[in-house]
Amino acid sequence: MLGLTVRWSLADAPEGVEEQLASYVAETSHARFTGMAGLRFKTWRQVPGEWFEGCYVFATSEAREDFQRTFTEGADDAPGTRMIGSPPILVEACDVVAIAEGWDGFTAAPRL
């Protein structure tokens, strides 16, 4: 499977940005990516004070390449960049080797 990681550093971000990012995901970003053509799934992860990232898994290499190109071209004006105050420190394509669904199943939700 075809992955893409986009990561921002939170080291110099404004205080409270983690909550601002979580609210943005819940209120806007989750809906944008739900049902997106070419995308299998996306997760949002953060370590407060360290980093915030989006992890994407795409159905085709074309979908990943198109998204990566479009994102990279607009990264300086991306919502995460505006909230954090700096562009991503990493935009990296990768291979997802495997996915296992545990006994308790998978939950798709705008905020956990």
UniProtKB/TrEMBL annotation:
Highest taxon, organism lineage: Bacteria
Species annotation: Nocardioides cavernae
Protein name per its UniProtKB record: Monooxygenase
